[in-house]
């Protein structure tokens, strides 16, 4: 009579071991959120837009505007520049390269 109890308890142990091993196996999946994706931004077009906006603000020609620096941040871009009269400015762009605003320095 002891034989069926032993078989049943072995069956329970084997089932428990299979369930535990299935739960503990961890398949490594790539984490796509960690990969930074940078949009294709045309820096020259942004510089030209910045020059046009500054020329309009300072009532001069775009040829008289010089770009001093181009900075890329995590979610935006900034272009620093000045006029021939040494008036400094900063053009801000969003992450897609769309013009946001022109600030005086």
Task: Classify the fold: give the CATH topology of the domain at 43-104.
Answer: Nuclear Transport Factor 2, Chain: A
Shape verdict: rod-shaped
Low-confidence stretches: 33-39
Mean pLDDT over the residues: 80
Per DSSP E runs of 2 or more residues, the count of β-strands stands at 4
Question: What is the H-and-E element order?
Answer: HHEEEE
Plain-language structure description:
There is one protein chain. The radius of gyration is 32 Å and the shape is rod-shaped. It has a domain at about 45-105: Roll (Nuclear Transport Factor 2, Chain: A), CATH 3.10.450. The chain has helices at about 1-25, 45-60, and strands at about 65-70, 75-85, 90-95, 100-105. It is built from two helices and four strands, in the order H-H-E-E-E-E. With about 100 residues, it is α+β, with helices and mostly antiparallel strands. The chain is about 35% helix and about 30% strand. A four-stranded antiparallel beta sheet has the order 1-2-3-4, covered by helices on one side.
Which helices and strands appear, and what pairs or packs with what?
Elements: H1 2-24, H2 43-58, E1 65-72, E2 76-83, E3 88-94, E4 99-104
Antiparallel strand pairs: 1-2, 2-3, 3-4
């Amino acid at each position: 009579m002891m034989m069926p109890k032993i078989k049943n308890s072995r069956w329970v142990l084997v089932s428990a071991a299979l369930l535990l091993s299935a739960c503990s196996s961890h398949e490594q999946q790539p984490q796509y959120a960690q990969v930074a994706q940078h949009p294709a931004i045309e820096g020259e077009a942004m510089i030209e837009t910045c020059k046009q906006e500054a020329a309009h603000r300072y009532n001069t020609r775009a040829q008289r505007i010089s770009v001093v620096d181009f900075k890329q941040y995590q979610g935006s871009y900034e272009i620093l520049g000045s006029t021939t009269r040494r008036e400094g400015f900063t053009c801000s762009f969003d992450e897609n390269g769309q013009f946001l605003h022109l600030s005086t320095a």
